[in-house]
Design goal:
Elements (H helix, E strand, L loop, with lengths): L5 H23 L3 H6 L3 H24 L1
Helix pairs in contact: 1-3
Length: about 60
């Protein structure tokens, strides 16, 4: 089994955070990211972009397996 890189761990962590956030939005209409960083709209957008990039990176990583 290949050793995971730091980037792999960051991507997995962001995907977990994104998954939990979407679960909260779907079940309770509660957006955790906006709740925590709502005052910094640009920061919220950066977090969402990083979660999206993590998803693309994970697709790339899985395609190599």
């Amino acid at each position: 089994m290949a050793k995971m890189k730091i980037l792999d761990w960051v991507a997995i962590t962001l995907l977990i955070v994104g998954g939990i956030n979407w679960g909260l939005v779907g079940l309770f209409d509660f957006n955790l990211v906006t709740f925590l960083f709502g005052k910094w709209d640009m920061f919220v957008k950066i977090i969402y972009a990083l979660v999206g990039l993590s998803g693309l990176y994970s697709i790339y990583t899985l395609s190599k397996l």
